[in-house]
Automatic annotation (TrEMBL):
PROSITE patterns: ABC_TRANSPORTER_2. SUPFAM superfamilies: P-loop containing nucleoside triphosphate hydrolases. Belongs to the ABC transporter superfamily. Residues 298-369 are annotated as: Disordered. InterPro entries: AAA+_ATPase (IPR003593), ABC_transporter-like_ATP-bd (IPR003439), P-loop_NTPase (IPR027417). Residues 357-369 have a biased composition (Gly residues). Keywords: ATP-binding, Nucleotide-binding, Transport. GO terms for molecular function: ATP binding. Residues 2-227 form the ABC transporter domain. The keyword ATP-binding applies. This is ABC transporter ATP-binding protein. It comes from Streptomyces polygonati. Pfam families: ABC_tran (PF00005).
Length: 369
């Protein structure tokens, strides 16, 4: 069990972690979420005694990290996969960790096998890919067979097979009754892995709840309907006091609708339906809803979330071709590709061909030079 009580960390006048109080319990995977700079890594570092709190307290099974005589037997952590001596082989790196915590040598072979690095055990880790480095870090966390495991962005750099593997590993560790605390920015992955969530923003606790409750409380549910009899659908639902909302892709949404009730209503009126599906918002939507006010670092310009950018295309819908069916909106890169028409400086690149296509560094404009 991990217990935080009023944990606070200040760097100068900046409060990175602000009176965090929560408990991470055994038996389930607990996800640790927050926007960039929310204070997740700082919290995890304090847990491991790598940073000292400005105030408050954090304990591992009732003790401070510094009080644990052979800490790898209590808590295994992956914080930064690159923090290994690159000149050492994977085997020697783990052996050094094992010897410093009186862990038997055979455990090194066992964890190398578990993470799939046996074949490269005698290779120096500086030649490892990002994914192999992550696996080595995970091996280090598992080495002491600890009851508590903590992973900061464990799937970073892993391929789909690796992501699948770590998901199952975390779940099985939790199923064995261990405490598993994991941070990730990959919401779809977290939704499949974690049962409980701790969400922070600007250092403060925003949510400490089950995954299901978190999604239910921070997002809306609706029923999606498709029909070739659009006007009839609108009339029927209006009369029933269930107004439909057009989505723009040919489907309609009814907020908080009961699919069974709506299906029966459609049947009574002999309305042909091509789709009637309950929609549950994703963890990503719920997360963005809850943390919207806490996000410190926003992407700027149309590549971010501006009206003409990629972010303007709703989830699940195709990105429209440039210029298709509407007047051409300003595109990312116009200021340098099309300097005469925008605010960009200089004109030696020549006129833009107006296609808006991304032709890379060997573009038409480059030929004019
Ligand atoms: N050593 C440090 N000195 C000064 N400020 C720091 C230090 N470490 C972290 N911070 C600041 O504390 C805040 C929290 O940082 P932290 O790395 O813990 O966030 P995070 O949630 O892990 O972010 P990310 O998701 O981007 O990894 C940030 O504003 C960061 O700039």
């Amino acid at each position: 069990m991990i217990e935080l009580q009023g944990l606070t960390k200040r760097y100068g006048d900046r409060t990175a972690v602000d009176h965090l109080t929560f408990t991470v319990r055994p038996g389930v995977v607990t996800g640790f979420l927050g926007p960039n700079g929310a204070g997740k890594s700082t919290t995890m570092r304090m847990l491991l005694g790598l940073d000292s709190p400005s105030s408050g307290d954090v304990r591992i099974d009732g003790k401070h990290y510094a009080q644990l005589s052979e800490p790898l037997k209590y808590i295994g952590a992956l914080l930064d996969a690159k923090s290994v001596h690159g000149g050492r082989t994977a085997y020697n790196h783990l052996l050094c960790l094992a010897q410093s915590n009186r862990i038997p040598r055979h455990r090194v072979d066992e964890v190398l096998e578990t993470v799939g690095l046996t074949a490269v055990a005698r290779k120096r880790s500086k030649g490892f890919s990002l994914g192999m480095g992550q696996r080595l870090g995970i091996a280090g966390a598992l080495l002491g067979d600890p009851e508590i495991l903590m992973f900061d962005e464990p799937v970073n750099g892993l391929d789909p097979e690796g992501i699948h593997w770590i998901r199952n590993l975390m779940k099985s560790l939790a199923a064995q009754g261990r405490t598993v605390f994991v941070s990730s920015h990959l919401m779809s992955e977290m939704a499949l892995t974690a049962e409980h969530l701790i969400v922070i923003g600007r250092g403060r606790l925003l949510a400490d709840t089950s995954m299901a409750d978190f999604i239910a409380q921070n997002s809306r549910s609706y029923v999606r309907i498709r029909t070739p009899q659009v006007e009839r659908l609108k009339d029927i639902m209006d009369q029933a006091g269930r107004p439909v909302v057009e989505t723009g892709d040919g489907s309609f949404e009814i907020t908080d609708g009961d699919p069974a009730e709506l299906g029966e209503l459609a049947a009574q009126h002999r309305l042909v339906l091509h789709e009637l599906s309950p929609q549950r918002a994703s963890l990503e939507e719920a997360f963005m809803q809850l943390t919207a006010e806490s996000v410190e670092y926003h992407a700027g310009g149309p590549m971010g979330s501006g009206p003409s950018g990629v972010g303007a295309v709703p989830d699940g819908q195709p990105v429209p071709a440039a210029g298709a069916g509407r007047s051409r909106q300003p595109q990312w890169g116009d200021s340098w590709r099309n300097p005469g028409k925008g605010s960009g400086a200089g004109s030696e690149l020549g006129p833009d061909n107006g296609s808006g296509s991304e032709s890379g560094s060997g573009s038409e404009s480059g030929k004019g030079r």
